[in-house]
Inverse folding.
């Protein structure tokens, strides 16, 4: 565990050094490789999540998801997601009888729902303040 932490710490320091450079150089002189700093930052983000005990799933940007995968990512039931698809809240396409949702569309839908939820909570908090409800 301590060895992993030391390696992670060295990687984090390297990330800080490479933040403004296009390429990071890793390794000893005879085995040195160049890695785009964006790839090194991604690796740092992954390792941070692993260190927190979180699972990480990576998808290609243009990935198509099944309704089950999409509902799992949103943390909602599959029937609720299908209802949203059929209402036109989220674009999808059919492959035979199966619905497919683009990951980018799903993430935009999630951001939109999160934004609406925060706006509603802010409005409720403001009303509670106006009514002196102690919140």
């Amino acid at each position: 565990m301590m060895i992993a932490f030391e390696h992670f710490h060295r990687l984090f320091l390297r990330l800080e050094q490479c933040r403004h450079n296009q390429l990071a150089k890793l390794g000893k002189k005879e085995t040195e490789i160049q890695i785009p700093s964006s790839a090194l930052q991604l690796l740092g983000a992954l390792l941070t999540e692993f260190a927190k005990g979180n699972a990480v799933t990576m998808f290609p940007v243009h990935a198509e998801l099944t309704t089950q995968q999409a509902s799992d990512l949103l943390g909602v039931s599959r029937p609720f997601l299908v209802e949203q698809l059929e209402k036109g809240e989220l674009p999808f396409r059919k492959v035979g009888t199966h619905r497919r949702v683009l990951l980018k569309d799903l993430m935009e839908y999630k951001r939109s729902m999160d934004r609406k939820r925060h706006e509603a909570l802010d409005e409720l908090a403001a009303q509670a303040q106006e009514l002196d409800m102690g919140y």
Observations:
- The chain has a mean pLDDT of 83.
